Amino acid sequence: MTTIQFPQGFHWGTAASSFQIEGAADKRAESIWDVFARVPGAIADGSDGQVAIDHYHRFAEDVALMQSLGLDTYRFSVSWPRVIDADGETNPVGMAFYDRLVDQLCGAGIRPWLTLHHWDLPAYLPGDWSSRSTAESFVDFAMRLHRVLGDRVRVWTTLNEPWCASFLSHAGGIHAPGHTEPTEAYAAAHHQLLGHGWVTSAIRAADPSATLGLSLNFTPAYPADPEDPADVDLVRRIDGTQHRLFTDAVFRGEYPEDVVRDAGPLWDDNLVHDGDMAVVSTPIDVLGVNYYTSQLVRTGEPSGHPTPHPTAPEAVVVDRPHLPRTDMGWEVTPDAFRDLLIHLHREYTGPAGIGMAVTENGCAIDASDPEAGPIDDQPRIDYLRSHLTAVHQAIEAGARIDTYLVWSIVDNFEWSYGYTKRFGLVAVDSQLRRLPKASAGWYAELIRTGTLSVPQSD
Ligand code: FCB
To answer: Which residue of 414, 416, 419 sits with most ligand 1 atoms within 8 Å of its CB, as the best mutation to test the pocket?
Structure first.
């Protein structure tokens, strides 16, 4: 074993999102995820977010848990339909919940990191993100929250993983609203980015010292045969729509020409209005990076099923049997994480003069029953250790990264997988009791010392 020392002042924390943990659905308007969860077969275990892990009622206990682990940052999201009712009025009960949560965090010495939109869009908004008017409504929602919480919340993330809320949701049909219309996916992506830009400049104007940004998800793709031009081009198309569409828009103020060309008739020529790209590329202060895995792909036959990769329907994922896998079936690839962070720093955040934060990283690994005794989730510890090593290597290579947030603090509602995939450092049993796993203690010790023990070969 050898040790790695993280810089002084490095921020350690966890992340979670409103729909996945809050419950208390009776106290808010419906979101598109409530509607989607009712579609037969949409959620693996037929579950929903009505109760979730009841964080709404147990938030003080959850904050105390985070404090006991020594976390200094907690990234949470706000349920828009909890804060604004269908008639457009602020819901005072919903707003008061976040007010109390933020107070509780500040009282515990934990930095509140607020994500404005983590997918639970109000169901009452006509046309969801495929409609431009949703981007306008997003500004109104954001500013009402900022007026109440802005004195204590100093870090604001506009969007979580807009690729998922556009391509997975509107082309792949896997996430709410469950559509399989690729044209809508491009529209949903643009309207989210437009809303992001408008909100960033509105908060900036009201609160110049706030730290603002968005969180993008990256699943680097590699060609199965780097010598085969077809595999290489496949990777270009996947990377283009999943990553560059977003990074180039935000950092360079343009949608990549090849991505628009690949989209062909799926790209509506009236989608982008004059001036939109200047809004989309409003300067940010931090790029949130969410990372779980990477993929090896090759060209095969289009399956004919809806796909979140409308310009790469012939993509086939190639197994790498030598790599460990998580319960999601995702291969454990920390080196790809290191390379990604260095790449993002060189291409985007470095030239923009800003840093990155790892706003999500973690794994679903233990399917064991919490009632059967304490969970020894050594594979999660190994996963976190190898990915933190990657973060450290990227820092050594010059990338500016000052925050690492584990997904997630407590097992929760994992979208279309329901409660079947467990990402928490802490388990929940059938009574919703919080039961720390071995990884929680391990993470607490890492935070206390800032020192990571790693096998020599790492
Ligand atoms: C990310 C999501 C988060 C969670 C993790 C496992 O894509 O942002 O809500 O589902 O994956």
So the answer is: 414
Active site residue 360: yes
Mean pLDDT score, 248-261: 98
Max Cα–Cα distance, the chain, nearest Å: 60
Shortest-distance atom of ligand 1 to CA 328: 6
Active-site annotation holds for 396: no
What does the alpha-carbon distance between residue 353 and residue 2 come to, in Å, rounded to a whole number? 33
Q: CA-CA distance, 251 to 306, in Å (whole number)?
A: 30
Whether the Cβ atoms of residue 418 and residue 43 lie closer than 8 Å to each other: yes
Exposed (0-12), middle (13-18) or buried (19+): which is 107, by Cβ within 10 Å?
exposed
Quick: pLDDT tens for 150-165: 999 999 999 999 999 9
**Residues of the chain by 3-state class (helix, strand, coil), percent to 5:** 45, 20, 40
DSSP line for 59-127: HHHHHHHHHHHT--EEEEE--HHHHB-TTS-B-HHHHHHHHHHHHHHHHTT-EEEEEEESS--BTTSTT
Q: What is the dihedral of CA 202, 207, 210, 215, to 10 degrees?
A: -10
pLDDT digits (tens, 9 = 90+) for 328-376: 999 999 999 999 999 999 999 999 999 999 999 999 998 788 888 889 9
The pair of structure tokens assigned to 388 is 């933190």
User: Residue 223 forms beta bridges with which residues?
Assistant: 297
Give the CA dihedral 331, 334, 336, 338, nearest 10 degrees: 160
- The CA 422 to ligand 1 mean position distance, Å, reads 11
| 365 contacts 377 by C-beta, under 8 angstroms | yes
Q: Which residues contact 73 (CB under 8 A, 6 or more apart)?
A: 11, 12, 13, 110, 111, 113, 403, 405
**DSSP states of 243-289:** IIHHHHHHHHSS--HHHHHHHGGGS-TTSSPTTHHHHHT---SEEEE
pTM over 0.90: yes
Q: Which residues lie with the beta carbon below 6 Å from any ligand 1 atom? A: 17, 20, 160-161, 164, 217, 290, 360, 407, 414-415, 423
> What is the rounded CA–CA span in Å between residue 137 and residue 312?
33
> What are the φ/ψ torsions at residue 247 (nearest 5 degrees)?
-65, -40
Burial-class residue 44 by CB neighbours within 10 Å (0-12, 13-18, 19+). Answer: middle
